[in-house]
Design goal:
Its main location: membrane. With 248 residues, this protein is mainly α. The protein has one domain. It is built from 12 helices and no strands. Helix 3 packs parallel to helix 7, helix 3 crosses helix 12 and helix 7 crosses helix 12. The N and C termini lie far apart (46 Å).
Length: 248
């Protein structure tokens, strides 16, 4: 049964608890408490969302026929079971902490031969970024509908914006990203062979273009448009971003 396959790890619960603790601190009428709270909301919340992103991949694969994800520990939401916890958790957290783009984490290995159909393969790839989008929508809905102090609202808004950026980034059809994984099952043999060769370096080229060329402006413009479309508050997000980066 699905419920017996999912085992939530204490480490994941600790990440959630750190995020909640940050939310409590952000409600205090004190600059140090607010700043600390926003930092915990963003870092704890981002680490939590990375786990949920990978869980989305794994759970969809499990339902689609790859039962090996259970024995690999991917259904526990425990980042210690990921293929490379440093690249999957530590590096994305570091990039967010220094004000960079929210990097995707290549964390779970899926046995694509066990998946029933090409449609299932596509859904496995899409499950991760769609998890980020759902989290972004949910967070913005909470900020809009629940009265809260500005510190808490700004921290949650910035975290929501990071989720939207992660969705836009991951959904791009670039080898090595989830958007490409969604279309890969439908490509011709030669196209898939080229994608395999490009997978190690294509994301690095994309990140360099985003950070060092006008393409970055377009990327963030699209992300802001989507964030606005799902109800994001640009003012609170800017406050949360500045509060978080002041800590650095």
């Amino acid at each position: 049964m699905m419920n017996s396959a999912v085992r939530v790890s204490p480490l994941f619960l600790a990440l959630v608890a750190a995020t909640v603790a940050g939310g409590v601190l952000a409600t205090f009428p004190n600059t140090v408490a607010i700043t600390t709270g926003v930092v915990l909301i963003v870092l704890g919340g981002w680490a939590t969302s990375l786990c949920l992103h990978e869980f989305g991949h794994a759970l969809t694969a499990y339902r689609g026929g790859d039962l090996s994800v259970r024995s690999k520990g991917y259904l526990s939401l425990d980042p210690r079971h990921y293929t490379d916890p440093v690249l999957s958790i530590v590096l994305p957290l570091l990039f967010v902490a220094i004000g960079g783009i929210p990097l995707p984490g290549g964390a779970v290995w899926i046995n694509h031969h066990a998946l029933r159909t090409r449609r299932v393969e596509s859904m496995v790839s899409l499950a991760g970024p769609l998890t980020n989008l759902v989290l972004g929508i949910a967070l913005t809905a909470v900020v809009v509908s629940v009265p809260m102090p500005e510190g808490l609202g700004s921290g949650l808004s910035y975290l929501a914006y990071l989720q939207v950026i992660a969705f836009v980034l991951n959904i791009l059809p670039i080898p090595g990203l989830d958007g490409y994984g969604a279309i890969e099952p439908w490509l011709s043999g030669p196209a898939r062979e080229f994608g395999e060769k490009a997978r190690p370096w294509a994301p690095l080229v994309l990140f360099a273009l985003i950070l060092a060329t006008p393409l970055g402006g377009l990327f963030f413009d699209v992300s802001y448009l989507l964030f606005d479309a799902v109800g994001g508050d640009a003012g609170l997000t800017a406050t949360g971003m500045s509060t978080f980066r002041f800590w650095m």
